[in-house]
Amino acid sequence: MNVRSGKDDDLPKGQASPAPEDSPPAVAESIQAEIREIATQLGVDLSDPKVASVFIQSVTRRSSPYPDIETAKQWESIYPGAARIFIDMPRDQALHRQALERTQVRVDAAIRLGGSVFAGIVALASIYAAYNLALVAKGGYDYLLVVLILIVGVGGTNIVPRIIERLPKYTIMKDKE
After folding, report:
1. How many other β-carbons are positioned within 10 Å of the β-carbon of residue 55?
2. What is the pTM for the complete model shown?
3. How far is CA 22 from CA 15, 18, 25, 52, 151, in A?
4. Rounded to whole angstroms, how far apart are CA atoms 147 and 120?
């Protein structure tokens, strides 16, 4: 074979040069039989290396927090107790996140309850003030003031919860999404 031109000058016509012994096998031949069968059923051409790579990655991708059995065995042989760590870590993370969410719910409920209690105190104080003022009222302006105190105080009990509902929810965890 001529190295510069890449042509088979030494071989008779119609005969191709043999493949070197260290050349990689064809892409489709190096793929596991199960994956090739799935690709055939789906009509995917695995002769293109890029298509084959994407297809293999999508078929063999795992979406589990746990490693596959072979990887876990390798880790266990290198670091005894690693399998227990693989099992405990996702569980511990889930428990931690749930604890944060419970705390978040409790704090949010406490803020809203505090606002409602404040609104109730304002309403009771306005009723008390209006009652005491009504007892000593001497003229029309005094009674007008009693009515205004009742309207502002009791009306405030309707306004405060609405303001509290518009407050953003208290968050402990800041997601980046």
Report:
1. 19
2. 0.45
3. 20, 12, 9, 21, 93
4. 18
DSSP symbol at 67: P
The 10 Å Cβ neighbour count of residue 46 is 20
DSSP single-letter state for residue 13 = T
Neighbours of 173 (CB within 10 A): 9
Distance CA 138, CA 132 (A): 12
One-letter amino acid for residue 99 of the chain:
A
**What angle do the packed helices 82-136 and 69-78 form, to 10 degrees?**
100
Q: Which two tokens stand for residue 129?
A: 């003030």
The phi, psi pair for 47, rounded to 5°, reads -75, -25
Tokens of 12: 């008779």
Query: Tokens 């003031």 correspond to what residue?
Result: 145
Main-chain dihedrals φ then ψ at residue 134, nearest 5 degrees = -65, -30
pLDDT digits (tens, 9 = 90+) for 116-175: 888 888 888 888 888 888 888 888 888 888 888 888 887 777 777 777 777 777 666 555
pLDDT tens figures, 51-95: 888 887 777 776 677 777 888 888 888 888 888 888 888 889 999
The residue count of the chain comes to 177
- Local structure of residue 173 (DSSP, 8 states): S
